[in-house]
Amino acid sequence: MQIWVDADACPAVIKDILYRVADRVPLQVTLVANQLLRVPPSRHIRSVQVPSGADVADQEIVRLLAPGDLVVTGDIPLASDVLKKGGYALNPRGEFYTNDNIAQMLTMRAFMDELRGSGVDTGGPAAFNQGDRQNFANSLDRHISKIQRESRGA
């Protein structure tokens, strides 16, 4: 398993958690972004810079992703593509996208886009907080433990 990070909008505290996990487990963590990213020196952490443009980073993640890999993203369409390719998708607030919830999330996203397009102020997501950080760390830890148990049993 490898972890891919949709890094352009990923909170710094989430990246820090991933950096620590990369060396502790060890596990390859790759950050993909439209801008140059500084990452800590580690043989388990790397960054990939892609050209600017809508969804270029998303397309690169999907292209490189292998079944069973984990993608950290808040982008619902990217999460949908990850699931279709056999990967796992986790948002920075610690919630997994699944085949059971992705269709509803895509529908809600389209509805909110339509509202915004008609001039309705829909607000934005709640501010990222310590609870979100903890939920992410816990979800990531449970997922890695599950994958490790499954690989030992295989």
From TrEMBL:
Family named by the database record: Belongs to the UPF0178 family.
Pfam family, one: DUF188
Signal peptide extent: none
Cited NCBIfam families: PRK00124.1
Source organism: Duganella violaceipulchra
Protein's name according to its UniProt entry: UPF0178 protein KVP70_24575
Database matches in CDD domains: PIN_YqxD-like
